[in-house]
From TrEMBL:
Annotated Gene3D superfamilies: 3.40.50.12370
One Pfam family in the UniProt entry: Usp
Phylogenetic placement of the source organism: Bacteria, Pseudomonadati, Pseudomonadota, Betaproteobacteria, Burkholderiales
Family: Belongs to the universal stress protein A family.
The name this protein goes by in its record: Nucleotide-binding universal stress UspA family protein
Alphabetical list of InterPro entries matching this protein: UspA
CDD domains recorded: USP-like
Highest taxon of source: Bacteria
Domain UspA: residue ranges: 229-276
Organism encoding this protein: Castellaniella defragrans (Alcaligenes defragrans)
Length: 278
């Protein structure tokens, strides 16, 4: 089970939603939580304050301090009500660096994508992707809308034989050990390569069973005409998935991720949590 879960706290409209889901997950898994509120988490403070008039700087700092204290109080009160041991951290400097450092002291970091309709939030659009690429720890992304009744009971694992997917599978072990159903999805599999490497059809399923996980339902699908991201989303819906686990790819593919591509499609339209690891 995860022993320590970090929750990204911010001034965005879904911050309290992250708190509630993170605390519920911690209570279910008997974990402790760390609320991480980077100092650059208030809109208007991402820029160089020195270029602003003194009265505006003072106003921004006051707003920052008030919001940080209100968030701290809310977080610790909710943790106390949930019976979860909680720690508060407010790192200075760049948000990505602060979150990355704290993620390395936890088993899991809980974040969400920026809401494009939240004009007052300082949440950077691609902050979760940047953190997962830099931290070396798994990031659990929570959808901004819709009910999240369970996380990790019915897992969809996206498997492509690559290092990143293998790392995600390993990082998701605390959740996989307690899932009730596991679906392994392969998209556009290279069957010729499988034969050349003498990889057998049941090798991955047998590996799952050897680890004490449920015997997975193994699906092979073609993305032609649909796109990889849409295939994953459709499969998640068809299998009643409550958690998608997948690898996050290296910097050479990061431009595709930000500008388009399968992961961008998935994260833009996700209706269930997604665990990413690199």
């Amino acid at each position: 089970m995860p022993g320590r879960i970090a929750i990204h706290l911010n001034d965005d409209t879904v911050c309290e939603r992250r708190m509630d889901i993170g605390l519920r997950l911690a209570r279910e898994r008997e974990a402790e939580v760390v609320g991480v509120y980077p100092s650059a988490s208030v809109a208007g403070l991402q820029q160089d304050e020195n270029i602003l008039p003194q009265d505006i700087r003072n106003s921004l700092r006051k707003r920052r301090d008030e919001h940080r204290e209100a968030t701290r109080t809310l977080f610790l009160d909710k943790a106390r009500e949930a019976g979860v041991r909680a720690h508060w951290r407010a790192p200075h400097g760049d948000s990505e660096d602060g979150l990355t450092m704290h993620a390395r002291h936890c088993d899991l970091l809980l974040m969400s994508k920026a809401d494009p309709n939240d004009n007052l939030s300082a949440l950077r659009p691609n902050l979760p992707e940047s953190v997962v690429m830099a931290s070396g720890r798994p990031v659990l992304l929570i959808p901004n809308f819709g009910p999240i009744d369970t996380i990790g009971r019915r897992i969809l694992f996206c498997w492509d034989q690559r290092r990143e997917a293998a790392r995600a599978f390993s990082d998701a072990a605390p959740l996989l050990r307690h899932c009730q159903a596991l679906v392994v999805l392969e998209i556009d599999r290279d069957d010729k390569l499988m034969r050349e490497r003498d990889i057998h059809e049941d090798d991955f399923s047998d590996y799952c069973v050897s680890l004490g996980y449920p015997k997975p339902r193994h699906l092979l699908k073609d993305s032609k005409g649909y796109g990889v991201g849409n295939v994953i989303l459709n499969t998640a819906t068809d299998t009643d998935t409550d958690l998608i686990v997948m690898g996050a790819y290296g910097h050479s593919r990061m431009r595709q991720w930000i500008m388009g591509g399968a992961t961008s499609t998935l994260l833009a339209s996700m209706t269930v949590p997604v665990l990413l690891a690199n």
